Amino acid sequence: MSLLTVSGLTVRSGGTTLVDDISFTVAQGDRVGLIGESGSGKSLTALAVTGLLPPGLTATGEVRLDGVDMIGGTERQRTAVRGPVAAIVFQEPLTALNPLMRAGRQIAEPLRRVRGLRGPVLREAVHGALREVLLDDTDRIARSYPHQLSGGQRQRVAIAMALACRPRLLIADEPTTALDVTVQAEILDLLDRLATAHGTALVFITHDLPVAARVIRDTHVMRGGRIVESGPISSLIAGPAHPYTRTLVDSARRFDAALERTARD
Ligand SMILES: Nc1ncnc2c1ncn2[C@@H]1O[C@H](COP(=O)(O)OP(=O)(O)OP(=O)(O)O)[C@@H](O)[C@H]1O
């Protein structure tokens, strides 16, 4: 059985279809990309998968996460799989972090709630989680409020929180878009390393093909709420079939060529 099965997922707002009949599966340890331009329905897909669609939007079709029906099931069933089974990292870490709570307490919360840790064991687990995302000054970071941290540090804290319960699936929704380029590369390496170390399946959402190529193997290209092409990312880059995938590949190539020219000058 797949860890995640999405079958005929459609998301509507009133009469408008925002995600249109998409299907894909993710097995344990897979790394799957959802690539597409802004507004193509990637984030709504991630939210529908975790049962977190905003009010006013409705989902139909089938989403099964570790066997739980994320559309027809009860809120209680959906809540039970969030954290231990699937966690999300968002583009802007401030979305996930509580601005009024110190980073250490935010990481402690899921460790307490889901893994039942308390006292010195909990404290050590928080510091361990911070070290795992390569934040060394753990005392200071744990005591800091989100606004006292850099963007890269905040995203590391958000990743530590998401991974605290050792989810089997991590959904990373444009996790590096808000960061500058060097920090972007560090966060991608970190996600890559942690997913390998824990055997975590990864759904990686991005508009950026070269970024996706660094961390995923298979991908679905989304446009206008639909999946227009699927396959191993290497094959898509070598021989894109859909005209939209071709424009993504061409623009990545143009960007690469421009970088090379600049480096030569
Ligand atoms: N709460 C909402 N109510 C109505 N329409 C929405 C809502 N949220 C998103 N949409 C619309 O649904 C479409 C898909 O949005 P979605 O956020 O999934 O796109 P995306 O591919 O993730 O883009 P981005 O990378 O910009 O986040 C867009 O046209 C968006 O305007």
TrEMBL record:
<dbReference type="Pfam" id="PF08352">
    <property type="entry name" value="oligo_HPY"/>
</dbReference>
<dbReference type="GO" id="GO:0005886">
    <property type="term" value="C:plasma membrane"/>
</dbReference>
<dbReference type="InterPro" id="IPR027417">
    <property type="entry name" value="P-loop_NTPase"/>
</dbReference>
<keyword id="KW-0472">Membrane</keyword>
<dbReference type="Pfam" id="PF00005">
    <property type="entry name" value="ABC_tran"/>
</dbReference>
<keyword id="KW-1003">Cell membrane</keyword>
<keyword id="KW-0547">Nucleotide-binding</keyword>
<dbReference type="InterPro" id="IPR003593">
    <property type="entry name" value="AAA+_ATPase"/>
</dbReference>
<protein>
    <submittedName>
        <fullName>ABC-type dipeptide/oligopeptide/nickel transport system, ATPase component</fullName>
    </submittedName>
</protein>
<dbReference type="InterPro" id="IPR013563">
    <property type="entry name" value="Oligopep_ABC_C"/>
</dbReference>
<keyword id="KW-0813">Transport</keyword>
<feature type="domain" description="ABC transporter">
    <location>
        <begin position="4"/>
        <end position="249"/>
    </location>
</feature>
<dbReference type="GO" id="GO:0015833">
    <property type="term" value="P:peptide transport"/>
</dbReference>
<dbReference type="InterPro" id="IPR017871">
    <property type="entry name" value="ABC_transporter-like_CS"/>
</dbReference>
<comment type="similarity">
    <text>Belongs to the ABC transporter superfamily.</text>
</comment>
<dbReference type="GO" id="GO:0005524">
    <property type="term" value="F:ATP binding"/>
</dbReference>
<dbReference type="GO" id="GO:0016887">
    <property type="term" value="F:ATP hydrolysis activity"/>
</dbReference>
<dbReference type="InterPro" id="IPR050388">
    <property type="entry name" value="ABC_Ni/Peptide_Import"/>
</dbReference>
<keyword id="KW-0067">ATP-binding</keyword>
<dbReference type="InterPro" id="IPR003439">
    <property type="entry name" value="ABC_transporter-like_ATP-bd"/>
</dbReference>
